[in-house]
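As a warm-up, study this chain.
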Amino acid sequence: MDASHTGPRPDRAESDLASARRVLEIESDALRALARSLDSAFVRALDSLNLAGGGRVIVTGIGKSGHVARKIAATLASTGTPAQYVHPAEASHGDLGMITRHDAVLALSNSGETAELTAVVEHARRFGIPLVLITSRAESAFAQTADVALVLPAEDEACPMGLAPTTSTTLMLALGDALAVALLERKGFSAEEFQRLHPAGRLGRQLLRVSDLMHAGEAVPLIDAERPMSEAILIMTGKRLGCVGALGPDGRLIGIVTDGDLRRHMDGGLFARRVREVMTPAPRTTRASALAAEALRIMNERGITVLFVAAEDGHPLGILHVHDCLRAGVV
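Now compare it with the structure written out below.
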């Protein structure tokens, strides 16, 4: 058999794993060093980036730092801090107009002297735009001119030659995450706000509330429990949700009539019976504020297809069908 098809040699496999573990250990050690190094400069950076009045955080960088900058801008924007990536080379050819006096600039430069960033830095200084720099060199020209310089700890790159940006870009990315999350917590950014910014993504679907999907108002099939079943069947047919909720004298939900209840009571006298004689009492309900995923779990566990949505005092607010959850992508 061709040796190339038998898998890696044991010594090669061990060497590969050792290389991977070395990279992860170097970078994890660097992250711990970064956490220890944070000081009041981080808080001042948050003050500079915590904008109001329509301002945005303009994130910029080039090369590997540019790729990290794009991700930081996306993370900021998705967690309640309006942000935009601006390519520094394009900025010097007209895109400086994207950066206004209401904005703040977050620049990434490992050396602190990246030539392509010069136009953005000068623009920020000329118009008094807050400038936060993430760099590895506190003595660099950009660090000296920035309002706040967040200096990365002096840690070795994971590349065995010490040349490829590895540890340094990991630190930049992690520091960007730290800024985004700290700003999120400052603003009191809620799960509901997160969902509004992620309507089509899986995270957004996980955060959908029952109130986002439920039928309400005239769409809710309800009837007084003392009314005849002939009227209940008409409501069930018209609302097309396969059930009708039974109300007590005070308007609270006291029962439910489903297709299964109809089959169990099917005889010549069904139409003349009162709803309370046919209904299943004390139906399971859910809260309007509950996650739709939680409501779907209840329906799956109980083998039912609908849940009435009720207020704390028992008055019905709406109804949720399993198909509403599935259409919204809640699983």
